[in-house]
Amino acid sequence: RSISYGTLLLGKGRRSLLESSARLVGSSLQPLIQRDSLQKNQQPICTIKELRSRMMSFLLNLYDEVSTATQRTRLFVPSIVPSAAALRVDAELTHDFESILLHWTRQIRETMVQDGPEAVDMLPLERIAFWEGRAANYSFLAAQLQSESVVACISALRSNQSHYLSRFDALRSQIIDASHQAAENLRFLQI
What we know:
By secondary structure, this protein is mainly α. It is built from 8 helices and 3 strands, in the order βββαααααααα. A hairpin with a 2-residue loop joins β1 (3-4) and β2 (7-10).
């Protein structure tokens, strides 16, 4: 891996240093916040809960900062997705994954509002740039929502009959539709 002007080259694509750092920190911290690894250190339960909560909050905020910096909505997806049976047994784990689902819901809603209706007084090239950005962000978000790990999180929560899924599902279908609409608008404007 090489670093060049704040960009870390990874495989075929380039990622910003902040984005790469978030992935590195996330992959390093996530195993630490698993209950088993914290209980091996024989910490009091209240300490373990507080540490897990703060680490989860840190990771969610870190991914929000990456989204802001890269102007692409990036979802925090845990590296270890528990089974539906594990969620049924562990109420805290269910709460953690419902918190992540609520965070995703907020991120999608903010993306839809943030990219609100286009300005009427845009010049043609500005309008094309606007739709290019919107199409890129929406398609990036739609791809994340259709990824295996996000689908696994959702299916585990669905099997546990999470009450937060109806709002999330509605927004997920809206963002996928908006992604197709933005791509279509961009194609029309580039003619």
